[in-house]
Prior knowledge:
5 copies of one chain form a homopentamer.
Chain A: H1 9-12, H2 21-40, E1 44-45, E2 48-49, H3 54-102, H4 110-132, H5 137-143, H6 146-151, H7 158-175, H8 181-206, H9 211-236, H10 240-262, H11 274-288
Helix pairs in contact in A: 2-9, 2-10, 3-4, 3-8, 3-9, 3-10, 3-11, 4-7, 4-11, 7-8, 9-10
Amino acid sequence: MVIRKRLHWFRMLFIWEGSILPQILPRLIALFLLSTAVVIFHGELFRFKIPLTPAPFTLIGLALAIFLGFCNTASYDRYWEARKLWGGLLIDARSLVRQVQTLGDAEKDHKDIREFANLIVAFSYALKHQLRQTDPTADLARLLKPEFAKSLENIKFKPNIILQELGQWIYRNKKENKMDSIVQVAIDSNLNRLSDILGGCERISNTPIPYAYSVVLHRTIYTYCFLLPFGLVDSIGWMTPCIVSFIGYTFIALDAIVTEIEEPFGVEKNDLALNAICRTIEDSLTEMMGDKIDLKPASNPFIID
Amino acid sequence: MVIRKRLHWFRMLFIWEGSILPQILPRLIALFLLSTAVVIFHGELFRFKIPLTPAPFTLIGLALAIFLGFCNTASYDRYWEARKLWGGLLIDARSLVRQVQTLGDAEKDHKDIREFANLIVAFSYALKHQLRQTDPTADLARLLKPEFAKSLENIKFKPNIILQELGQWIYRNKKENKMDSIVQVAIDSNLNRLSDILGGCERISNTPIPYAYSVVLHRTIYTYCFLLPFGLVDSIGWMTPCIVSFIGYTFIALDAIVTEIEEPFGVEKNDLALNAICRTIEDSLTEMMGDKIDLKPASNPFIID
Amino acid sequence: MVIRKRLHWFRMLFIWEGSILPQILPRLIALFLLSTAVVIFHGELFRFKIPLTPAPFTLIGLALAIFLGFCNTASYDRYWEARKLWGGLLIDARSLVRQVQTLGDAEKDHKDIREFANLIVAFSYALKHQLRQTDPTADLARLLKPEFAKSLENIKFKPNIILQELGQWIYRNKKENKMDSIVQVAIDSNLNRLSDILGGCERISNTPIPYAYSVVLHRTIYTYCFLLPFGLVDSIGWMTPCIVSFIGYTFIALDAIVTEIEEPFGVEKNDLALNAICRTIEDSLTEMMGDKIDLKPASNPFIID
Amino acid sequence: MVIRKRLHWFRMLFIWEGSILPQILPRLIALFLLSTAVVIFHGELFRFKIPLTPAPFTLIGLALAIFLGFCNTASYDRYWEARKLWGGLLIDARSLVRQVQTLGDAEKDHKDIREFANLIVAFSYALKHQLRQTDPTADLARLLKPEFAKSLENIKFKPNIILQELGQWIYRNKKENKMDSIVQVAIDSNLNRLSDILGGCERISNTPIPYAYSVVLHRTIYTYCFLLPFGLVDSIGWMTPCIVSFIGYTFIALDAIVTEIEEPFGVEKNDLALNAICRTIEDSLTEMMGDKIDLKPASNPFIID
Amino acid sequence: MVIRKRLHWFRMLFIWEGSILPQILPRLIALFLLSTAVVIFHGELFRFKIPLTPAPFTLIGLALAIFLGFCNTASYDRYWEARKLWGGLLIDARSLVRQVQTLGDAEKDHKDIREFANLIVAFSYALKHQLRQTDPTADLARLLKPEFAKSLENIKFKPNIILQELGQWIYRNKKENKMDSIVQVAIDSNLNRLSDILGGCERISNTPIPYAYSVVLHRTIYTYCFLLPFGLVDSIGWMTPCIVSFIGYTFIALDAIVTEIEEPFGVEKNDLALNAICRTIEDSLTEMMGDKIDLKPASNPFIID
């Protein structure tokens, strides 16, 4: 959980790191150079005057607004739903540990509960690795019993099998008469919620916004921007490169942000800080088990983790 | 679950397969030819000058924006709700198998549970076939007991009867004292969720966006596009065909995408990959039953399945 | 559940039945005649020139866009929520019958369950009749026991009393020891959902979009349309009647659609097919009782039922 | 529950009662007079020509659209959520009475259940009075036992204490062995929903849309409207007063509607008909208790009650 | 819960306190001075004429509308979700106390229940202090047992550990046979809801709107505003400073509001009144315990608390 201090509005105008500018700068420079050339040649291409006015751009702008507005909202919804799912993971992890510690009236076995908590933490890390397509072996080996960690190696849907193991844990407790059916079902309903979270993340990860949207959006934005100097040069003359770069900046930056947050489980600057959330889950459960945790906050707020 | 690698923005400008362009190309060519004719005849039709300016198009554009924006959002909501329902099917399938494997304290009968899992997989395939109006016989024969598969032949709402059979399965287990009422009700509440998914898919499939919207939207878009050259020819001259085709491309492409995703259960390029989801459900339950599955990913990401 | 085959985009341009055009044609003709008169008199009214330009229409258009966009979204949300509630009715009807057939471990009395299923079907028909303010007597007489159907005659909230009778059914079963408290409560929670559906439909039916919106929207649309020819005649001359009729068509059509779907329980062309849904519920429960149903689909997809 | 018959579109143009017009007429007259003065003095103020054109108004219009669109949506969401909460109150009231009548297998005490139903009705009235800050004494005296009604006098959160009394009712029944824990908890979960409704209404009532929005919106609308004649007088001359009043009408009317429905629990024309809903709850529960109710509908549909 | 009386529309135009104006005044004055200079120098900068027209601003306005509209909606959604979570805290607090007072059939220990209620109130205060990063020691010392308050000092996630203690309370009651499993689980499900509220608040607090949005939005707004006088000076002359300040006011004010409510847990004027909500929770539970509370309302409605 990365905490970013809010900047003063004035400083924010000149920030470099954390902004989307570095990434899109080459495109903006190309746009600026084209505009300058258009100004120098008075909008002529091989002595043919390109007869454009601002009017058609207002009409194109309409379609662009619908596309950009929609893709932006849809991407942000994906981003925010992904964040909610991972927030739900933290919530459920805590609820599950609280439940195994306090439901029923049997004496509680601290070591057994720690195993249960470790399974939940392992579930979080396994989910993170599945979504980022990285190797979970180290994290799983640290948290799980060797034989179970070993058996996960050839498994495709690892978090799901860990979830099944959580079910086995309550089954063992039920068999040993440490809980009755009512308590078992109450805990199981929180396992269902973990299943919801897993399936929700897989859905966002596997189903992008329909591909055709992105293609049409890209084409519209770039055609619009590279035609724009021809449309403005007759009315605003040598200001064309500045204004075109500025308009280009807003559209291309929005497009770049949309592309980043559309897949919120990546490791780009504006993606979700999954590592930080996994550590928060681990810390929070550690505290609930009565152990000390490290209280100092994360260092660099711009490092997505 | 189809995973598409994200393309570089520049390559995306020139992609052919996977874009909506091939489908709408004839209309765009017609639009281009009309615009060229308008340029050649200076906007005259049988020597009558059509006296149009860009101004009315701004006014029409307003209505168009409301229609297109609305239809686009409504279609995407249907698409995404459909995807959520099928994601929920995967979630519930796993939860149900976990529940029959771990709830209660009775010894678990592996073969009996496999029958239960097969019923769930059959439910998925039957739902897919119902939504696509294809023949489910082969899939059902593979997964169900012969007599039950046979009895489904004259059934209209097949997934619903399979769901009833899942209920019969827990009824038998309860009668054999393998679970108590509490466990039975907990499993039954996940059957209710399968019922929700079934009903939700039927609702999306059977109730399109009110027909009048599509009619008015189509008429507005095509009238707009085919009047546009007359409005632009006086101000932008020989650029008219390019600009009109470009504006036409954005509107007609958006309209085509909206038409495709409005019915998300079809087999067009931007529809949902129901086959892939059915296979994922089958694979996931197979793993939970302790069996091996094929780990290699799907081959061609553009084949909707 | 009415299934409409998707039309080719080109055929859709010239469709008559199923479109909103027949209904608004008189208004469009009036608009066309007015525009023609304006062209003939060069925008003068009793020799006074009306000095309008397109500029004010852009400003009015802004308010119009907010109003129309909002009323459209709000109406469609009502329509879609109503559809979801009726979809939920189908879902719950099936879930309830499945529950009384498979929960607990008592022997099931087929005839008693059929009575329960009939009560649910009667609930659907009674709700439909209440929402459409039609007479439910025939449907209720067909489905309910004579004395109970008789007792409903002087009842204002009929579906609610049928719901109470469903509760009495499980009360009788509990008293006869055919189910325990756990099963009874599980079934009762689906009766709560029927209560939600009933209340949701009543809410949509009894609380329209605040009246003031419709009044202002109507006034804005018609004033806008009937002033428009004066604003366009100076720039587009004899094209004014065509363009004004076209713009008028888009706005007035949208307004007419909004008015229709705002009250989704009516019997107009774009309203919900409540009869078809009631029949689907009846068919689906009949199948679950093990009886045959008629498999042929509904005939005319444009008849709202 | 007020039922308004839908008016013909033409009659709606000239309606007076039920529209927002009477309320904003003085402001529109002021706007009309100002515009007339501007026309007479040719846009000069003390011989200084105010050099405005329509262009800046398009730019301001953008901000105005964002503000108005947002405030309108946010207000309507509050209104509709409030309506849903009160609809939920009717739903829950019925569900609770059905539950105490039919859950468990004990003999039902009609008089005791009537007391329970009266508590629910009293909850509705107490909530209405709390939201409208009116005196609930008469309604509570009519419905509650004298000593309990008396004890509520010095209570700040009256509906909450009535809810607690509903809890005490099921506690007494449980103690007298008329229900088991399972039934008690099932009824209690509907009491939780009443608590949700109470808290939801308090939230809407106590937290308006952030104040700064309303201030900026008001300032933008009125500055816009009173500058508008100076911008239009040069292009549309003596039509200025008509057009300015018309544009002013749309914006000021929308603003007035937004202000009314933002606080949906008031007694203005477009607010919620809380009295009618309370009566519906009372009628519906009376019917469920087997008593007769008055079947004739409410008289004047424009009286918010 | 702060109740603000609605102001007359006319008074609202001239309000100072409670508006966003004081905060953004310096920026508006800078904008006014720049515009005045532009008018004086006829849009020349060091004798170079800046050749701008209103046309490019319409194009930029499009991107601005998408950005501002989106950021505004996203911020308000965060604000309103935060408010719902805190409203849910009040709801759950009451439900939990009602449940421990009325579920089951054991005799109720008033002192024990007061301890439970105090834990809930402490949870509220601890959450408030965590979100505002203030010191909770005083509030916790007042409400909790000394040894437990002491043990919380080195805890990072204090509300979560208080929630665990609430779980321990029901565990102790279960062990002492004051409740059965069913009642325990019913209360526990409301503890799960407290966990949801805690996690939801942490999510909003720790995950701002992706940083890149704010940066691009700020840059677009300020570049737009400071270029605007050059674009308007040729058409509206000496009115430029007034109009530019007015347009700048709307955009900068909206941006300032968005920045404030994006982080709804702060102590700025438009943030949530967390202190007031905490007091309401405490008052409401006090009343439920049968004690008197102070009935007079909060004094200054503009003091966010």
